[in-house]
Amino acid sequence: MLPSADVDGEEDICYSFLNQGRYLAVGTRTGIKLFESDYGKPCIRTYSGNLAPVIAIAVSPDERFICAVSDDQTIRFWNVKTGEAILTFFSSFDGRWIAWTPQGYYKASPGGDNLISWHLNRNRDDLADILPTRLFRWFFERPDIIDRIFDTGNVNQAIVDGNLALKNVGDFLEIFNIHEDIANFYPPRVNIKSPLHKERTAEKQITMEIVIHKNEEQEIREIHIRNNGRPIPSWNPKLFKQTPGIIIQDQMISFSVDVPLHAGENPLEVFAISDKSTSSTAQLTVHCDVTYEEEKGNLYLIAIGIDDYEQGLKNLRFARKDAETFGSVFEDKTGTLFDVVHSTILVNEKATRANILDAIEKAIFKVGKNDTLVFYYAGHGLFDEHQRYWLSTRDSSPNNISDTGIDFVAIQEKLQLIPGKPLLLLDSCHSGVVTEEPAIKYGQKNMNDIVKSLTNMEVGLQVLTASQGDQYAFEDARWNHGVFTMALLEVIQNSYLYRDSVILSLPADKNLDSIIDFDEIRSYVIPRVKEITNSVQIPTGYRQNYPRLFPVVEMQK
Q1: 13, 139, 429, 502: most buried, per Cβ within 10 A?
Q2: What is the dihedral of CA 506, 512, 517, 518, to 10 degrees?
Q3: Which of 133, 130, 111 is closest to 122 using CA atoms?
Q4: H helical segments located in 123-216
Q5: So what's the pLDDT on residue 49?
C-alpha cells in the first residue's frame, strides 16, 4: 500500500523501494521522505537540500546511498542511514560537469568549475556577491576527497582521510567549510579606475590605473593584466611589487601601467591571485583609432613525434609520421595570416630531451605579441607516482622519468607568459603511466586534469588533447595516423583521409572567412574522433575567453 498522494502536506512525485520492499522512498518537491511500506506510518527520515522537485529516485545496489534527480538538472546523493547529504552532481549541455559536497569541496571537468557559484550576503544595504566556485579552487578543488566519499559514506571522514594522505606526501590541509570560512577566503576585488569602458584613443598605448582591495590577512601573489586574452609585454604577474609608484597597504594595492594597444577593439582584463583565492576578472574594452597596418606576425611551430623508444617504453606506429605530416602542412602557410613560418620538427632520434627543451626555449624567446606558437606532440604521456605529468622523449626511461622526460608544468609556466598566442595539440594520453598499479588510488589524475591546468585563468592557454579522462589515444593502419592527428589534418587540408565513416562535413570554416580558427578546429575534431572510434576516444579541449578569434591556418581551397 502506497502513502496517500499528500505526503506530510507535500505532493508525491516518484517512488523507490528499499530493503526488499520494507521501506518506501518518496520524492517530493523539496527532497525525499522515507516511510515504512505499511500504510499510515509516519515519516522515518527526510533527505533534504533539494531546490527543485524530485523527478526520479535511485538506490545504490548495497542500499547505502539514495539519490534524487531534480528539475534543476542536479543529482543529489544522501547516506541512507544517517540522512547526510554527501554530494551533488550537475552537468551542462556542452559536456562540462561538477560534483561538490555541502562543505564546498569539488571535482570538475575542464571549465566545470564555472557552472556553479556561491551566494554570499554582505551588509544589509549592499547587494549580495555571486562568487564562482573556480575562485576558491586552491583550497576547495579536491578530487581526492570526492573520490573517497562513496567509500567512507561520510564527507567529514573523506576529508580527514584525504588530508592524512596528503600529509604523508608532504602537504597538510585543514578542514574547511565554504559557508563558515567564506570571510577568510573572500576574493580580492579589482577595480580599473581608468580608462573607462569603450573609451577611444588615438594613441598606440593607454595607461591603466588599477586598485585592488583585499583582506588584511591576504597576501596578493600575482596580478595578471591581459589584452585579448594574452599577457601584455614586459609585465610579469609575480613581480608586480617592482612597478614604479606602486602603493601597497594592508587592505589596498594601487598602481598604474602602460598597456600597448592593437588597432581597433582591445578587450582588457585584470585579475589578482592571493594566497587564499582568485579575484573575479575586471574587464573593459578600449578602441584604438590609430589607422596603421599591424604586422601579421610569424608562426613558430614545434612538432614532435616519437614512435621508436630506447629505454623500455612501448613503441608506437605512426607518431613519427603524424609529426612530420602535421609539420609539413604548415611550411607553406605564409600569406594572409603569417609573414614567416618557423618550423622545428623533431622525430625519433632527434627528439631527445635536450633537443626538445632547446627548441622550446628558442621559440619562447622569439615569440612576439603578434606571433602564434603551435606546440604539437605525438608520443607517450606519463604520470609519475606523485601525479606529475611528463612528456616522454626518445631517451626517456620509465624508471627515471624526472631526469629523462619533459616536465609538463615547466612547459606550462613558460608558455603562459609569452605575449603571443600559444596553442597546444597533444596526441598523447596516459598510456605510458610509469606503474601499472597507480600508487595513488584517490584523485588519480588524467588528461582532463592536464587540460584544466592549461586553461585555468592564470595560465590561459588554448589546448586540444587526443583523449579525455583515462582513455587511450588510438592509431591504426586504417587511418595511417593516430585518429586525433588524422582529424586535425582533415581540417587543415580540407580533405577526408578516412571515408568509411563520414557524418561531419568539410570545410570546417563555418563563418566562411577562409580562416580556420581554434573553435572551428575543436568543433570538427572532437565529434570526428568520437564518430570514428564509436566514442571510445573523445578529444577534450576548453577554449579560454579570447574576445578576438584565434586563427590557426588559412583554409586550403
Answers
A1: 429
A2: -60
A3: 130
A4: 137-140, 143-152, 155-168, 178-185
A5: 81
- Look at residue 542 in the predicted model and tell me its pLDDT: 66
In this structure, how many other beta carbons lie within 10 angstroms of the beta carbon of residue 395?
A: 17
Q: How many whole angstroms separate alpha carbon 328 and alpha carbon 116?
A: 43
Residue with cell 590541509: 173
Regions in the chain scoring below 50 on pLDDT = 1-5, 430-441, 547
Going by C-alpha positions, the residue among 341, 345, 339 that lies closest to residue 359 is 345
User: For position 418, what pLDDT does the model report?
Assistant: 84
Q: What is the Cα–Cα distance from 411 to 272, expressed in whole angstroms?
A: 22
381 neighbors 392 (Cβ within 8 angstroms): yes
Which of 142, 92, 187 has the alpha carbon at shortest distance from 449?
Answer: 142
DSSP output for 486-511: HHHHHHHHTS-S--SS--S-S---TT
Neighbouring residues of 23: CB distance < 8 A, sequence distance ≥ 6:
17, 34, 35, 36, 37, 44
Query: Which grid cell is 524?
Result: 570538427
Q: What is the pLDDT of residues 415-461, one digit of tens each?
A: 877 888 888 899 986 443 333 334 444 555 666 777 766 666 666 67
Per-residue cell: 521: 578546429
What Cα–Cα distance (Å) separates residue 164 from each residue in 86, 148, 173, 369? 20, 13, 9, 45
- The cell numbers describing 436, all together, are 601499472
Closest CA to 212 of 242, 183, 182, 255: 255
Q: HSE, CB side, 13 Å, CA atoms: give it for residue 526.
A: 16
Residue 395 to residue 379: CA distance in whole angstroms: 12
Closest by CA to 334, choosing from 385, 298, 300, is: 298
Q: Read off the pTM.
A: 0.79
Set of cell numbers at residue 529: 574522433
Grid cell digits, residue 93:
549541455
Backbone torsion region of residue 219, taken as left when φ is above 0, otherwise alpha when ψ lies between -120 and 50, otherwise beta: beta
CB 207 within 8 A of CB 194: yes
**Look-up: residue for cell 573556480?**
134
Minimal CA–CA distance to 207: which of 257, 241, 253? 257
Hunting for cell 622569439 — which residue is that?
366
